[in-house]
Amino acid sequence: MTSLAEFIQTKREKAGYSLSGLASRASISIETLEDIESGRDLFLSVSVRQKLARVLKCSPAEIKKYERDYEFEVVPIETIEELKARILRHETNLKCPMCGEPLITRVAKMYDLEDNLVLEPKAHCVKCIFQIK
Prior knowledge:
The chain has helices spanning 4-15, 19-26, 30-37, 46-56, 60-64, 77-88, and strands at 103-111, 117-125, 131-132. It is of the alpha+beta class and 133 residues long.
């Protein structure tokens, strides 16, 4: 079965668009399109699906059939807090609490209103929809 990433990339190439060309014509960020074509985004928002369908000359339903459907499960807050602490300790090889696949992690450096540094742990799964924003 064709994946969403393969479908979008094939349609883009057949239409003769580069990544930046399709992103521009569809009014979506190139980062969003890269996430779709790399397989990181497995389902799309309605607006992104409609924009891509318009430019790629297909129906939104045609794109939707390649998206992954997920049954959402709630990850306990204790598990999330433990993962955040482990990310802040720069531990490696962390696994997704939903599917067990590797997590891609980073620590975002932000500043509060008083200009104090705040470290915010971020993560997303390489396979499923789990993420810590």
